[in-house]
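Propose amino acids for all 494 sites.
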């Protein structure tokens, strides 16, 4: 890290330089005798801390700080001066200076200040490196400088062994449970754990506790953590454990092995997988899937869009409940169905099929693969399904919502009622009405809530439950988002 000392008096610069060296701060010291000289240095070097006097000829320290702030919002700026006027202090604060110091500088005050500055810089630096780590885990190729930066922060001891855990859920578990998951990771894996939230359903844990990583109890702790997760949620989870590695290059190799293994595992079954497990083999539970796929192909032959949608939905459900199946196998099965639709149904261009195939084979996880498939099927069906039939489906959906608004209505629930795939239902509803089905359901519920609130005989908690919301705080937040006031405030305004 670098500090730039700016003062037109050499003695003052040397005095501050002496204090930095005295307290052994890990800083490269650069000096400038004027604001102009300082700007030249700043244009050519990355400076972490600007330590500048206020009163200097040509350009004051405050003017210098103002120019710096226009291009660098994060640099730590310290203003010091022999002039104690309040106006100087006020201006320094406005320019986000860290502290305003008076000459002569009190040593204790200087040390306290520098400790705070360096601590803040180290935290910022760590966050920056964590962002690089995020990119690495997400598959981004990093340049040499970025890799060196990560190694300096996280892999500074080549004798220490590291591991990572890749934790993947069927649904977006981390959107609401990230804090709980972090608590579990600290409890079972120790405090030397770095969390990288990759996607709403996928995260990484970088384990930097060498004693834990090589311990015979390591796998036991992972098992306990998995058990705690299962007690907390019905969501399905799979945890990949990397081999131990000692540097960034080894970690990248482990990431590649993990990605390869993930392509061989399709479903989720609350499973812990060791990436270096030589016995890990792809298992195929294909009989039921092939039967369901053949039923879809038969439905395509019939050219009945409702049956095609229904059988496609059943196929997706069959794949979801399969214990374990090759990801590549599923992708090929689904592509075969899409290709059959192209061959036998009118209005489908080959280009669309190729694009669909690309999206299927690029998908990272099983959830995305199936979502892509359902969306593709919906688009294909819409190409030849009549508008009259679609209008009839929309009408049926609206009647269901009007009749059952007091339930916790989901897209899956609606799809089951009309015997169609969720993706298809979502697609045609948005196309026909201009809004999402979930938005429509919420609109109906909020409209009913307003009417109920106008009835003073109902308590607010009863209103929420009457509209299908068991969680009162969630109902209150949702109502306020819609109407700008809480249910209580709405009633008071009546």
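Proposal:
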């Amino acid at each position: 890290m670098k500090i730039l000392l700016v003062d037109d008096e050499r003695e003052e610069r040397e005095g501050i330089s002496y204090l930095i060296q005295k307290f052994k701060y890990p800083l490269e010291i650069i000096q400038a005798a004027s604001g102009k000289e300082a700007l030249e240095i700043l244009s050519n070097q990355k400076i972490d801390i600007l330590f500048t006097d206020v009163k200097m000829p040509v350009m004051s320290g405050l003017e210098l700080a103002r120019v710096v702030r226009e291009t660098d919002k994060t640099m730590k700026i310290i203003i010091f001066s022999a002039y104690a006027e309040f106006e100087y202090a006020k201006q320094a604060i406005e320019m986000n200076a860290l502290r305003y110091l008076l000459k002569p500088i009190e040593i204790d005050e200087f040390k306290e200040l520098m400790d705070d500055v360096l601590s803040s810089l180290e935290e910022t630096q760590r966050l920056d490196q964590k962002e690089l780590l995020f990119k690495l885990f997400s598959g981004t190729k990093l340049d040499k400088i970025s890799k060196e930066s990560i190694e300096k922060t996280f892999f500074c001891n080549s004798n220490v062994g590291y591991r990572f855990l890749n934790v993947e859920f069927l649904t977006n578990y981390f959107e609401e449970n990230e804090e709980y998951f972090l608590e579990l990771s600290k409890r079972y894996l120790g405090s030397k754990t770095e969390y990288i939230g990759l996607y709403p359903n996928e995260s990484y844990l970088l384990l930097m506790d060498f004693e834990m990583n090589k311990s015979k109890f390591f796998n036991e702790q992972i098992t306990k953590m998995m058990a705690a997760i299962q007690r907390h949620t019905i969501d399905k989870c799979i945890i990949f454990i990397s081999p131990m590695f000692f540097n960034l290059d080894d970690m990248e190799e482990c990431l590649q092995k993990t990605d390869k293994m993930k392509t061989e595992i399709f479903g989720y079954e609350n499973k812990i997988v060791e990436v270096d497990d030589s016995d890990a083999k792809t298992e195929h539970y294909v009989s039921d899937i092939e039967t369901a796929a053949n039923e879809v192909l038969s439905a395509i032959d019939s050219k009945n869009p409702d049956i095609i949608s229904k059988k496609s939905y059943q196929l997706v459900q069959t794949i979801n409940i399969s214990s374990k199946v090759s990801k590549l196998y599923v992708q090929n099965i689904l592509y075969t169905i899409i290709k059959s639709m192209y061959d036998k149904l009118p209005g489908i261009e080959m280009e669309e099929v190729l694009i669909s195939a690309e999206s299927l084979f690029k998908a990272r996880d099983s959830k995305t693969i199936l979502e892509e498939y359902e969306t593709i099927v919906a688009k294909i069906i819409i190409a030849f399904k009549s508008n009259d039939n679609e209008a009839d489906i929309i009408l049926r959906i609206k009647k269901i919502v009007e009749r059952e608004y007091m339930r916790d209505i989901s897209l899956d629930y609606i799809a089951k009622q009309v015997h169609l795939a969720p993706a298809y239902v979502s697609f045609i509803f948005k196309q026909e009405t201009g809004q999402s089905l979930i938005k429509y359901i919420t609109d109906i519920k909020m409209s009913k809530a307003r009417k109920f609130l106008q009835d003073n005989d109902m308590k607010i908690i009863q209103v929420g439950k009457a509209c299908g919301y068991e969680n009162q705080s969630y109902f209150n937040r949702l109502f306020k988002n819609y109407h700008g006031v809480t249910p209580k405030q709405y009633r008071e305004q009546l």
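The longest helix spans residues 107-137. The chain has four domains: 2-122, 155-274, 287-385, 388-493.
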